[in-house]
Amino acid sequence: MERKDLPDLVHSFTVERAVFVEGLRLMGSYPHRLLVITTALGQIKSPYPHSAVNPNRIFQSLIALLAGLEVPFLCTDTHELGEEAVASYLYQIHLYHWLEKNDHGRYLVDDDL
């Protein structure tokens, strides 16, 4: 898992792009991976006060990350919501792993995810 705020995300996809993308490639080899961005998706698509980078470039990089490296991303409005999302994600991973390991299938109740 990786977490970025907006300035860090922009910096990572521009100045440190090669290093960041290589790290994401490595992350892609894990069965469970997630990039958490602690800003709203609308902010990613809006002009940046701290950079002249085109917001579409960053947005398209995220979509390429999702499609090409199969690393999902999640945008949360705050750092605290990001922490909660990561904790919930890890809990669900553990829960489904336990269910499968104990021959309960990959669902909690009938017609569950």
Question: What attributes characterize this protein structure?
Answer:
about 110 residues, mainly alpha, Rossmann fold, three-stranded parallel β-sheet
Describe this structure as you would to a colleague:
The protein has 113 residues and is mainly α. The chain has a domain of 78 residues: Rossmann fold. 53% of the residues lie in helices and 8% in strands. It is built from five helices and three strands. Strands 1-2-3 form a three-stranded parallel β-sheet. The radius of gyration is 16 Å and the shape is elongated. The two termini are 22 Å apart. 16% of the residues are buried.
Quick synopsis:
By secondary structure, the protein is mostly helical.
